[in-house]
Known about the structure:
This is Response regulator transcription factor. It comes from Comamonas antarctica. The chain is an alpha/beta fold and about 325 residues long. The protein folds into three domains: about 1-145, Rossmann fold (3-Layer(aba) Sandwich), CATH 3.40.50; about 155-255, PAS domain (Beta-Lactamase); about 260-325, Winged helix-like DNA-binding domain superfamily/Winged helix DNA-binding domain (Arc Repressor Mutant, subunit A). About 50% of the residues lie in helices and about 15% in strands. It has 13 helices and ten strands. The chain has helices spanning about 20-35, 45-55, 70-80, 100-105, 120-150, 170-180, 195-200, 235-240, 255-265, 270-280, 285-295, 295-310, 315-325, and strands spanning about 15-20, 40, 60-65, 90-95, 110-115, 155-160, 165-170, 215, 225-235, 245-255. It has a five-stranded parallel sheet, sandwiched between helices. A five-stranded antiparallel sheet has the order 7-6-10-9-8. α3 links the parallel β3 (about 60-65) and β4. α2 (about 45-55) packs parallel to α3 (about 70-80), α9 crosses α10 (about 270-280) and α10 crosses α13 (about 315-325). It is elongated. It starts with 13 loop residues before the first strand and ends with a helix. About 25% of the residues are buried. Residues about 1-10 and about 240-245 have low confidence and may be disordered.
Amino acid sequence: MMDSFPATARDASLVLIVDDVPDNLAMLHDALDAAGYMVLVATNGEAALARAAQARPDIVLLDALMPGMDGFEVARRLKADAGTAQIPIVFMTGLTETEHLIAALAAGGVDYVTKPIKPAEVLARMGVHLGTARRARAQQQQALQARSALDAFGHASLTVRIADGRVLWQTPLARELLRRHLGIDGPRPALPAEITAWMQRQQPTLAQQPEPPRWTLDPGDPPGLGTLVLRLHPPSPEAEESGPGELLLVMREESDLAARETLRQGFGITGKEAEVLYWLAQGKINRDIAEIVGSSPATVKKHLERIYAKLGVETRTAAAAMAMARLPG
């Protein structure tokens, strides 16, 4: 159990060593433990897969040749599982023939060390790959946070595979807009053929276009939907490295309803307060707002008082300015 490690080691990287030879395990375990790593061991492929799924190690040192399930198959299964696919695998092998080394890399290994194992070499190579993996995770997390943050401003983003229009990643708001406007849902839906064809036409010249290409889906059923606008962007550099042939779509529902939802989410106010604030930003006076929202001017005034408190302002001019800053131009 990981709780058996001393507190000072819990922040260290977790290494899974897989080898069917006890002496090899003992030597590497002692060297890594002395270097401050947390260490798990497995003596066969089945145990390696179970430990990797449960503990999610930061790196795997994997023996290539083992009885039963060999290291190549273990690596392929780790890479096929989304939960373990990003874990770097360093093969340990006594095989030096070119085809065996190619097989190790083809199975998902990032590197290999030859037997007899030299602990200093293993530590040096591990350090390189752990650093690379940490940077990749940090970039992924930053990209995820940045894209998800767009939802609060009414912009939904998704990553789409150009070849077939398959959605590979989407924010919660993107999923909701796809469901409402296009009637598609699920973790990895496919966009309609006409949108996919539009993306494919735009892709060759996308980087040279001064503005992101725009696709507009006019309102339809059910009543009350706004206009769905899609803008096509090149992928980020890290997305190009991990999945070439993908593009970023940013969607927005342009309507009074969508604008009010943007204000509600952006400022943490109620739906009615968002409605009042929206019309305030349009230059309406209290009497006009009351007629639009179906309440009295006195009720509108009370809503505005609560809005001012939540926004940290004292005047309708300041509240309107903050609202306009959140809404698209």
